[in-house]
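thought: fold this chain, then report.
action: predict
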Amino acid sequence: MRARLDALKMQLHPHFLFNTLNSITALIRRGRMREAEDIVAGLGDLLRRSLEHRQDLKVALDDELKFLHRYFEIERIRFQDRLQVEVEVEAGCDGALVPSLILQPLVENAMKHGFSRKPEARLLRISARRVDGDLRLGVYNDGPALSLGSTAKPNSHGIGTDNTRKRLQMMYGASAHFILQDAPPNGVLAEVLLPFQTNP
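observation:
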């Protein structure tokens, strides 16, 4: 199971890496060299952080959010003033254990299917709260609704959501759930529900 989880986790890195390299190439072609250099520096930091946690199946939510902060610094260069990020973490949740890199592919998915498809979209909200004995994580974007109706089918939104479902099932079985759905009046919400755990 550890080998299969590692294989799923490693599939996420090339996906993110290729997208970032494409952004760097586009900036260079437009003559935006300073911004391209900033993204290269940010990418190096992200790769270093991911290698440091390479063997970690779970990390504290606070560490996951620090990784995302660096990711958003890269995306802000791409989207300029258009990207507005809100992080709402309920008190006591920052130390909760979550699967390593569980949020990054959901955020990247929101950027790809939300921001890139709707020019006026600008809000991305990450939330975390405790519900009874579970941790509920949310990634919301105010982009267009899902193309397949109110709830996306498995595999319908790419490798990120597919891997999220598989990793949760392998790590928690029936105790964890993932759902991707429209969030009326506009936008899409990805939610992960898993057992609330902390380091002893």
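thought: worth noting. Confidence is low (pLDDT under 50) at residues 149-156.
final: tokens above.
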